[in-house]
Amino acid sequence: MIYRFADCVLDTETHAFRRAGEAVHLEPQVFELIRLLAMADGGLVARDRIVEAVWGGRVVSEATISSRINAARRATGDSGRAQRIIRTVTRLGLQLAVPVTCDGAAPSAAPLPQATPAPPETGPVRLVAAADGTSIAWSASGTGPPLLRAGHWLSHLEMDAESPVWGPLLARLGAGRRLIRYDQRGTGLSDRAARRFATEDFAGDMAAVAGAASPDEPVAIFAASQSVAHAVSFAAAHPTRVSRMIFWGGFARGPGERGAGAAAMGAGLAEMIRNGWGRASSPFMKSVASLFMPGATPAQLADFVAIQLASADPETAVALRQSMERVNVTERLAQVRCPVLVAHATDDALHPLEEGRILAAGIPDAEFLALAGDSHVPLPQSAAFGRLMDAVDGFLGRDWGRDWGRD
């Protein structure tokens, strides 16, 4: 069906939306919310009905609900203050404040153009010296509470924002926040000659960036994969400099600390990296498809290769991979004093769900979130991505307005 209201057109067959003739990207939950309101044709849609339809009846925070309402208003050219299109009926629910027309989507009708997510903001690249003199490149953009996205394997400050893999993640993390990013030592725009890759070195780099970017205010941290161990070390050593942390696909024990099977897989990956760095047809790239991000599109795999080539040479990539083999920060988990959300894909083949459980069990103030999925990389097209981002918003306590999305 095609619904038309104000200057908006919503096509449920092609899952497309446009305003004033321009395609607008909508996340699935936002699309479902607008569809629900359009179907009601000006009728009141109760809060419980919205939760049932959009979240399948799961328990969700008011902040999460308000974030989706605000996103729907932005997409339709509305705001919580104006409520020209989407109206809040206090304590009851929502309704469209404009007329709606509906017609069937003809089989021969041309589909509405699909939009891609707008790239996130980027800021100027700056340099800070780590404790050992290594130059670390960092950047900050946006306004709001500071959120530091920990540097990890395969990042590049000048490429990530436009990446179909990392761009949507950065856009969501940076919404309503001051997003701080940096390239891991030895990669991207940081010192490529670095050869010290101990956990303490990476934690020191994080401390240097946090100190330069947010000297007067503690930072929240989003860390993924091996950068989780670095964040644990940083937070344990500097508890007053961290407000809270979110972990995705992380571990306290490197593969070499988990038994012979995991160690063998790590050694095999290192050899494939050395021989297949930057070649789409190499065994390494096939392992990427099956281990790192099994649901990746051809465009995402191509982007992954491009960032490989721009970010590091093969030997550095191998050295970085090998550096995580014997990581073990389990004894530091109890020293983390801030609240932590530990999220993990249930079928992550690279770092199993059990590694996430170990993190959550060892940190005194930790919540554990297992999300159905098999991708180690949080791909924007996956069902887990939206749920992860909603959880991040709720956990960070972002102020979306207390009365159903009013600005």
Task: State the CATH superfamily name of the largest domain.
Answer: Alpha/Beta hydrolase fold, catalytic domain
The separation of the N and C termini measures 31 Å
Overall CATH architecture of the largest domain = 3-Layer(aba) Sandwich
**CATH class call of the largest domain:** Alpha Beta
Order of helices and strands: EEEEHEHHEEEEEEHEHEHEHHHHEHEH
> What do we call the CATH topology of the largest domain?
Rossmann fold
pLDDT averaged residue by residue: 88
Structural class: alpha/beta
Walk across the major sheet and give the strand order.
9-10-12-11-13-14-15-16
> How many distinct folded domains?
2
- Spans of at least 5 consecutive residues whose pLDDT stays below 50 are 105-117, 398-407
| Proportion of residues in extended strands | 15-25%
Total count of strands:
16
- Helix amount: 25-40%
Describe the structure.
Residues 1-98 bind DNA. One of its GO terms (molecular function) is DNA binding. Pfam families: Abhydrolase_1, Trans_reg_C. This protein is an alpha/beta fold. It has two domains: 2-103, Winged helix-like DNA-binding domain superfamily/Winged helix DNA-binding domain (Arc Repressor Mutant, subunit A); 125-396, 3-Layer(aba) Sandwich (Rossmann fold), CATH 3.40.50. It is 36% helix and 18% strand. It has twelve helices and 16 strands. The chain has helices at 28-40, 47-55, 62-76, 167-174, 199-213, 227-237, 260-276, 283-292, 298-311, 314-323, 353-362, 383-396; strands at 2-5, 8-11, 16-19, 22-23, 45-46, 86-89, 93-96, 100-103, 125-129, 135-141, 146-149, 178-182, 219-224, 242-248, 340-345, 366-371. It has an eight-stranded mixed beta sheet with strand order 9-10-12-11-13-14-15-16, with helices on both faces. Strands 4-3-2-1-8 form a five-stranded antiparallel beta sheet, with helices on one face. It has a three-stranded antiparallel beta sheet with strand order 5-7-6. A hairpin with a 4-residue loop joins strand 2 (8-11) and strand 3 (16-19). The chain is globular and about 65 Å long. The model is unreliable at 105-117 and 398-407 (pLDDT under 50).
